[in-house]
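Lab notebook: predicted structure, single chain.

Context: the supervisor wants predicted structures on file for every construct in the current expression panel, including those that have not yet been purified. This is the next one on the list. No modifications to the sequence; it matches the entry in the shared construct table.
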Amino acid sequence: MKVVCVGSGYVGSVTGTAFAILGFPTIIIDMDGRKVKEINEGISPIYEPGLASCIEQMVNASRLSATQTYDCVYQADVVFIAVGTPSKPDGAVELKYVRSAAKSIGEHLNPSHFTVIVNKSTVPVGTSDLVASIIEEVSGLENNRHFAVVSNPEFLREGYAIEDVFFPERIIIGSGSPKAKKVMQSLYKPLLERTNYAELAEHLTFASNHAATKTVLFETDAKSAELIKYVSNAFLSVKISYINEVARLCDSLGANVNDVSFGMGLDTRIGNKFLQVSSGWSGSCFPKDTAEILSESQKYGSELTLVKAAIDSNISMHDYCIQKIQRSLTSLNSKNIAVLGLTFKPNTDDARHTQASYIIGKLLQLGANVSVHDPKGMSMFQQMNKGLQIRYCERPIDAVAGADALVLLTHWDEYRLMNWETVYKLMKNRYVLDTRNFLKKLNLSELGFAYEGLGLH
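Prediction complete. Output recorded below exactly as produced.
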C-alpha cells in the first residue's frame, strides 16, 4: 500500500516516517517548502529524540519523501490528515486546515481506486462526517464507495513519540465502513505483529522494554473514536490538577506531597502516572484539548464541570508559584529572576502554550527582570512570545548570574547536573523554587540555598 501524510508537524512527521519503516512507500505533504526540503535531505523538521536518524534512514532507502503538491494522492491507498487544529479564542476548534486538506484531497482522488482518508489530528466529534462531505462535494465521488473517512487519533507523547508509535498501548479505528476497516487492519498489521523492526534495532534502544507488551486494536464508530482522544487528555489534566491541589494542601498542613502521591499510586485503581507535581499542565495538547472539549460540552448542554474545574485549578497553580516567589522576595520590582525550562516537559522543543509563558508574563508585569534558558525550546518560545521582554541565555549558568531567584519549570537533566556550588557563588539572593521537586535530592539547603519545592516539608 502507498501512504500519504498531510502535515509534517509532531504528528505528521512521526506518523509518515513510521509507516515508511513498516515497509510502506510514504510521501509527506506540507506547504512549507523549508520543511519539505529538509525531509528530502534526510533532516527532521522537528526535534524529537530518535526521529532524525529514522528519517535519514528512510529517505536513503527511498521509502520516504516530501512534496508541496497533492498529486501523490491519486496513487495513494491511505491518506492521513495530520494538520494543525488550533483553538479559537472561545475555545472552539479551528478546522480551516482540515477543511483545506479535505478539499485538496478531494481534488486529487482517483475515481477508480478506493482510498481511505484518515483523520489523525485531534478533531471534534463529527469531523469525519465534515471531511467526507467536503470530499464528496469537491470530487463528485460517493462516500463509502469510492472513498471512506476513518478516525484514527494519535496518542504520541512528545519526547517519546518514536517509542509510542512502534509500541502503542492501543490503536483506535473509528469508521462505519467495513472496507476501510480492513485497509486499516492491513496497514497496522506489521506494527501489531512487530515485523520490519529489525532495521531499527540501532535506533529502538528501548525495544527490549516492550518485548512482552501487546497492542490492542479497538474498532468503534467515528464519533466515539474522535471523543476518546479528547476525554483521555481531559482526564489526565484533571488528575494533574488534583495532585497539584494536593501539593498546595500539603504546604498548608506540613505534609510531603511526594510521599502522598507515592502512596496514592500504589493503589492500582489510581496508578502512579500523572501524579507528579508541577507548576501546572501546559503544552500544545492539554490546554487546547481541554478548552475544546469543554466548549463542545457546553454547546450541547452537557458541560464537563470537572474539566472546567481542572482548567481553573491549573491557572491557580501558575499563580500559586508566582505567589511563592513574591513571599520570598517581597517585592519583585527590579528583581532578577532566572527561569530554567521553557518547554512543557523535557526532550522536546515544543514551547507552545507553556506554563513558562504565563508565569514569565506575570513576573514581568510585577516589574521583574527575567533571564531564561532551555536546551531545545528557546527558539520556538521566542517566536511564540515576541511581546515578552526577556533575556535569552545560551547557557543556564549565564541565566543565573546575578539572580535574586532561580525558578525551575522544566526538569531537564542538565539542570540537575549543573555545578550548584558555582550557581551559589553567581546568584545574588540564593532563593530556588523547584516547581517539579526535581532538585530535592541535591540537598541544596545544605549548600546555603533557600530551597523551596511544591508540597515539601
